[in-house]
Amino acid sequence: MKRVLPIVVILLLQAVLLFANLDLLPIWTDELFTFSTVPHPLNEIVPILQKDIHPPLYYFLLHGWPWHSLAGMRAFSGVWTLIATFLLDLLWTRRWRPSRRWLALGIFAFSPCVLLYGRMARSYSMQTALMIAAVYFVWRWIRTKDGYWPALVSVLLLLYTHYVPGFAVLAACSLPALAFLGFRRTALLMVGALVGYLPWLFKFADALSRWGQAAGFSSRYTLTGSSWLEQPIKIGFGVVSLTIGESFPFVALLLVPLVLWLARRGSRISPKPLVVFLSALTIVGYLGVSRWVSYPFIPARLLWLIPFLAMAVAIGLTPIGRVRWWAAALLLVTTAVSITFYFTRQNYLNPGYAAPLREIAERLNQQATPADLILIDAFNTDGVALQHYLSGRTPSVVLTHEGQPEADRLLPAAQTVWVVRNQRDISPDHVTTNRENAACSTRHREVSLYEPYAEWQQVLLQRFMKPAPTHFYQLTTCAPAH
Question: How is this protein annotated for GO cellular component (predicted)?
Answer without folding.
Answer: plasma membrane
